[in-house]
Amino acid sequence: MSRFTLAAVAALILSSSAFAAAPPKADNVAGQLKALQAELRALKDIEEIRMLKHAYFRGIDSADLPLLRSIMHPEVTVHFIGGGYEWKLTGREQYLEAIGNNFNSEVIAQHNGHHPEIRLISPTEAEGMWYLHDNFYNLREKLYTTGTAFYRDRYVKVDGKWLLRSTEYKRHYEIVEKLDKLPNVTVDYLAEHGRKVDRHCHGDGLCRDGQETPVASQ
Questions:
Q1: Which keywords belong to this entry (predicted)?
Q2: The whole model's pTM is what?
Q3: CATH number of the domain that residue 140 is part of
Q4: CB neighbours of 215 closer than 8 A, spacing ≥ 6?
Q5: Looking at the 3D structure of the chain, how many domains does it have?
Q6: Do residues 214 and 176 lie in contact, with contact meaning Cβ atoms separated by under 8 Å?
Q7: Residue 114: which domain range?
Q8: Which pLDDT tens digit goes with each residue over 134-147?
Q9: How many angstroms from the chain centroid is the CA of residue 27?
């Protein structure tokens, strides 16, 4: 149980103790208990969304497509804009294909999401902002990319479970460098578990426009 949920439970217990010591009117008790239950539910929803996004980053960097499938809405929309790429994808299957193609056996990826700002819009809708920092090595092309962005997400609750409904960002900054030689990689998870590909489709996610990997400045 998270510290947020624990704090809400503690507040509920303390309030219940206060009721026992000096019982208020019945209608006030019912109203206050209802308000506390609503606050606890909201805190639990926010924590579930945080867990969803943490799983998202883990799924991306490990190319865990079953995990990503489990947290995405079937009609998820995606729009990512970087210095040399723009992904505009519609639907879970298209996004999973893009992830499988680009987080492949010839890359090393690290994506971290920080400073979540999550707001509940309704009992079944929420929006969130996350501060991304990532490192990405394209070992085939000897390219290293690093930078930041602000994810803007929307989430929906379906059958009691929160799902990613839309996600987008435009790079806050991005640095792409050509490597003279590859780093001394001693462990590479994606080399074993990533998809084997004939080409990289980082330009638009699926090589629909024939664009492959962006070229770094010399």
A1: Signal
A2: 0.83
A3: 3.10.450.50
A4: 84, 141, 143
A5: 1
A6: yes
A7: 1-218
A8: 999 999 999 999 99
A9: 42
